[in-house]
Design a protein that fits this description.
InterPro entries: Alkaline_phosphatase_core_sf, Sulfatase, Sulfatase_CS, Sulfatase_N
Helix content: 10-25%
Number of helices: 12
Organism: Marinifilum caeruleilacunae
Number of strands: 26
CATH topology of the largest domain: Alkaline Phosphatase, subunit A
CATH architecture of the largest domain: 3-Layer(aba) Sandwich
Largest sheet: 10 strands, mixed
Keywords: Calcium, Hydrolase, Metal-binding
Domain Sulfatase N-terminal: 31-328
Radius of gyration: 26 Å
Protein name: Sulfatase N-terminal domain-containing protein
Shape: globular
Structural class: alpha+beta
């Protein structure tokens, strides 16, 4: 009887523990992570940082109820910052050296946040701009993400009712793109919450990057404040971001996930144009403060020190180790990371040890050894002179020389492994459709960026050949585009062409050569493409517009494994020019 009584008490005790854990399961759950990264949003593009015109109440409150890092540094352009954020490593080590033509591809041996959090059991999703590799397995679905809605390129051509990608398929959107991406992120969060699965939701918005498109109510508001068209659109996009962050926070609250979600907000680099930036020198593409110092907010109700402002110098490479420490996870990195956790700056009054933060872009150098900042040939005391008005190099030659030597040592140890003219991988069963976009082709004869493109024999429609541009002004039968590809699987591949052709030029004969295989095709069907409705507030100067395209099935080829060159030739041009070429698609037949 006594033994049975003891068992009963023990059972009641265990049931009580189980019940308490059920009631307080928010304490036991693995923390969620919501990482929001905006595109070209300046340090001064928040009312929290002193912008008297801009209204960002949600982000202001997020900072005031959480932690704001006042000296947070990134790279001066998009793809490098994203590579460092995702890996905790300087972007040069990841193989990312630029923003186009494969230079944005992150090497495949790099481990991303998504890889790491997925190994802990998280569901991982990205909603927005990737910009670390367009072709699988450089694509998000090959880098640890379970779900992808967005685009892989460095910018998008149209923000209204556009066609992006959803898990490898075309996805026609309705409405303003930033709102659409938020809708998709919310669905992802709802799905994870419904099955009590911790999530890593990466939300890299495409705004306030150009093109300058924003809904009327935002644009009109800032026009009424007397702001010029360019900045009225920029500020409108920033306020729209703020509204979408509010929607995300409300959803977390509704799902009872807010207390258990670490929300992080930052930008990828400084502003495109010279606008209010709290006096910081420089802008996007520069290593001065205005190009690389961005707003950074971390908010987690579980550990918040309300309104805490961190003055230590922090960087994008620090974010990954910081999150790992906050969620109490250890990870054995395959590649040594460069960042250091600043979690204790958030959770206590600890200080980070003194260190140097390095930067490099287009052959220029930057070293921050707080309070000293070396940028190229200049030296500043960034605490006394945050706007870099006084070069103190002559008075501090020893300090300058030491930082210069430190930079040379750092740069010399990077072991850069950037491969020029990378082969585009095709034929993975996980991603059977491979697109060879016109803007990634090499044009022959070698293309010169001449405004008078009609006399070059072949050129890009919008001069520079940025993402989404196409091949135009193709008047020479000796001119052609080519791509280098790597066929990873021997198989039959359907060949598909995206093109436009004016009626007077019908009869163009083209030749597609892949290695030693050739398809010839006479094009007897005209296709006049039209630009989608123009929502630009300010006329774009370099980016190609979004248009519709004709599709032509060319047949199939059996391709062997290996590196091959793909050439598209106009072997007969009966009219005044050949086709306008948007892309060539190679679709593995399973």
């Amino acid at each position: 009887m006594k033994k049975r009584f003891t068992y009963t008490i023990l059972l009641i005790f265990l049931v009580g523990i189980f019940s308490c854990n059920r009631i307080n399961n928010t304490v036991e759950k693995t923390p969620n992570i919501l990482l929001i990264v905006t595109d070209d949003q300046a340090y001064g593009d928040l009312s929290h940082t002193g912008n008297s015109l801009l209204e960002t109440p949600t982000l202001d409150q997020l900072a005031q109820s959480g932690v704001f890092a006042n000296h947070f540094y990134v790279s001066p352009v998009c793809a490098p910052t994203r590579a460092s954020l995702l890996t905790g490593r300087y972007h040069q080590k990841t193989g990312v050296s630029g923003v186009t033509r494969g230079r944005e591809d992150m090497q495949l041996d790099e481990e991303t946040m998504a890889d790491i959090f997925k190994s802990f059991g998280y569901r991982t999703g990205i909603f927005g701009k990737w910009h670390n590799g367009a072709h699988y397995p450089y694509h998000p679905l090959g880098r640890g993400f379970d779900e992808f809605v967005g685009f892989t390129s460095g910018h998008w051509s149209n923000y209204f009712n556009t066609k992006i990608e959803k898990n490898g398929a075309d996805f026609q959107t309705e409405g303003y793109l930033t709102d659409v991406l938020t809708n998709e992120a919310i669905k992802f969060i709802e799905d994870c919450s419904s099955v009590e699965k911790a999530f890593f939701c990466y939300l890299p918005y495409q705004t306030p990057h150009t093109p300058l498109q924003v809904p009327d109510r935002y644009f009109n508001k800032y026009k009424q404040k007397g702001v010029d068209d360019f900045n009225a659109c920029i500020y409108g996009m920033c306020e729209n971001i703020d509204d979408n962050v509010q929607r995300l926070l409300e959803k977390l609250d509704q799902l009872e996930e807010k207390e258990n979600t670490i929300v992080i907000f930052l930008s990828d680099n400084g502003p495109l144009n010279n606008r209010f930036n709290n006096g910081l020198k420089g802008r996007k593409g520069m290593l001065d403060e205005g190009g690389v110092r961005v707003p950074f907010i971390l908010n987690w109700p579980k550990i918040n020190d309300h309104g805490k402002e961190i003055e230590a110098s922090l960087a994008h490479i620090d974010l990954l180790p910081t999150i790992l420490e906050l969620i109490g996870k250890d990870y054995e990195f395959k590649n040594k990371i460069d960042g250091e956790s600043f979690a204790k700056l958030i959770t206590s009054n600890s200080e980070m040890k003194k260190r140097k933060i390095f930067g490099e872009w287009s052959g220029k150098s930057r070293v921050l050894s707080d309070p000293y900042l070396m940028v190229g040939e200049a030296l500043y005391d960034i605490r006394k002179d945050p706007n870099q008005e006084v070069n103190i190099r002559e008075q501090n030659r020893e300090i300058y020389q030491q930082l210069k030597d430190d930079y040379q040592r750092w740069y010399g140890e990077l072991q850069l492994n950037q491969i020029e003219n990378k082969a585009i991988p095709i034929g993975y069963k996980e991603y059977p459709k491979s697109v060879l976009p016109a803007h990634e082709a090499n044009l022959y004869p070698p293309y010169e960026f001449r405004k008078d493109r009609r006399h070059t024999g072949i050129a890009y429609h919008s001069l520079y050949g940025w993402a989404h541009d196409w091949i135009d002004f193709w008047t020479s039968e000796d001119a052609y585009p080519q791509w280098k590809v790597e066929v990873v699987t021997k198989a039959q591949y359907a060949i598909e062409l995206q093109y436009a052709l004016e009626p007077e030029n019908v009869g163009v004969e083209i030749s597609i050569q892949i290695g030693d295989q050739i398809i010839n095709k006479k094009i007897n069907q005209a296709y006049i493409h039209k630009q989608y409705p123009n929502y630009d507030r300010v006329e774009r100067s370099q980016e190609a517009p979004e248009t519709n395209w004709g599709t032509l099935q060319l047949g199939t080829l059996e391709l062997q494994q290996g590196i091959k060159v793909v050439k598209v030739r106009s072997i007969k041009i009966p009219g005044n020019k050949s086709i306008e070429l948007k892309s060539l698609k190679l679709i593995r037949q399973l």
